[in-house]
Amino acid sequence: MSQASVVASTFAYPWDLADTGVESALRHLSDDGFGALELTVCYHPITLHTPGAPDRRLMYMDRGAVFFPARRERYGRVKPHLFPEPEVVKAWTTAAELAPGMGLDLNAWTVALYQPWIAHEYPDTARVTPAGQINLGGVCPTSPDVREFMAILVGDLAEQFPIRTVQLEGVCHQFFDTGWRLPRVLVQLSPWNRWLASLCFCSSCVAAAADRGISVKEFRKRICDELEAVYRGTAPPSDRPFDELQAERMAADGDYAEFISMREEVCVELVLGIAERLHAARPDAVLGLWGPQEFDGTQLNLERVLPVIGVLQTRQPMIAPDNARRAREIADANGMRVTAVHWCGGRIGPAWGPEFERALRASVELRIDQINLFNWAMLPPQIASAIVPLLRRIEAEVNGC
After folding, report:
1. Are strands 46-49 and 58-61 parallel, antiparallel or unpaired?
2. What is the structure's pLDDT at 3?
3. C-alpha span between 131 and 71 (Å, rounded)
4. For tag attachment on the chain, is the N or C end more exposed, with fewer CB atoms within 10 Å?
5. How far is CA 10 from CA 143, 354, 369, 377, in A?
6. Is the pLDDT confidence value at 2 over 70?
7. How far apart are CA 269 and CA 272, in angstroms?
8. Cα(108)–Cα(213) distance, rounded to whole angstroms?
């Protein structure tokens, strides 16, 4: 019995397309068998090496940026910070013109909250630690300005370009050390302590908590006291399971339960607001989310947003098998597609060879609809060109063709 082929896609950065030549890069991808392209819309700080784009071996960006020609007059208080190289920003326009004619779907790879440029330019949107220090590594979804900006951004993109999917990344409150450069954390923090240290008390969170009747000053002091006891060694880090501690605290502490409910609600509002703008601008486009967990393990209330999303993205099944299986189950129950991110080499994914082949096979066996390779220009060209033929061979073996 035949089965539809897994769509092969790859993440790509606009600077790599611009440096290689957009038309040349897309032709190369099409010739290598890729059927889609996950092109960066806005991105976080990064330092990377790109063997596949020889004109820019090193890419360094310390605050992130927006990479398509966003129309500033459409935005509210937060205005888009465009990457300073016009040819890189123009790559989006050229790719949108050429991709359909080369058999490539154009998808939008969109990072939401890990945007330090917003935090630096609008400090009141930045996260704030329980002890009161500003954390410029990213922004807080409780900020109405942040939610408005992301919704307008996606609507602006969808009005301009024939995108098929907007793949959102990082829509949940981040951990306190997200975005840190060369982090130095010598104290032992259990998952529970790390979670408490990551609770945000920016002005938006404080106002939203007060509106829900939370005694913010007293609640915040309890969080700080609990963390301080760990730091000073007067209380050991708890080794009990996080879910057990979370359920216990939710039942025993009304302020804590209400605060967590508020945090969950604003993340749902962020996704719903983005979906509304996307579907108004391009009704045939779909919204994708990491699920059932974000890449960093944070979780959105998927039940609240399932009606507005069409794709769940997960890590390759060999890395997170339970998460991938659960994503497949949710997708099957709701008529959605599942994409799996495959890293080839580096600190996360298996290196090219038998282990990478096994990783691809696991996705085929789980009936993943699309694999998203990370990342086209970061791989030696001979490896990038060999991945889709390998995928097709595995499919034929699994499906008995």
Report:
1. antiparallel
2. 58
3. 38
4. N
5. 32, 20, 14, 10
6. no
7. 5
8. 39
Residue 181 carries which side chain, given as an amino acid letter?
R
Token pair, residue 173, equals 């409150």
- Cβ–Cβ < 8 Å for 64, 39: no
How is residue 81 written in tokens? Answer: 């910070």
CATH code assigned to 7-399: 3.20.20.80
Give per-residue pLDDT as tens, 78-136: 999 999 999 999 999 999 999 999 999 999 999 999 999 999 999 999 999 999 999 99
Measured CA to CA, the distance from residue 347 to residue 275 in angstroms comes to 33
Q: Where are the domains of the chain?
A: 7-399
Contacting residues for 305 by C-beta, under 8 A, at least 6 apart: 268, 271, 272, 275, 289
Q: Categorize the per-residue pLDDT at 400 as very low, low, confident or very high, splitting at 50, 70 and 90.
A: confident
Q: Which two tokens stand for residue 104?
A: 């490539």
Query: What does DSSP say about strands 105-111 and 7-12: parallel, antiparallel, or unpaired?
Result: unpaired
Residue-by-residue DSSP string for 317-370:
TTTSHHHHHHHHHHHHHHT-EEEEEEE-STTTSPPTTHHHHHHHHHHHHTT-SE
Element (H, E) at 75: none
Question: Six-digit token pair at 311?
Answer: 């794709």
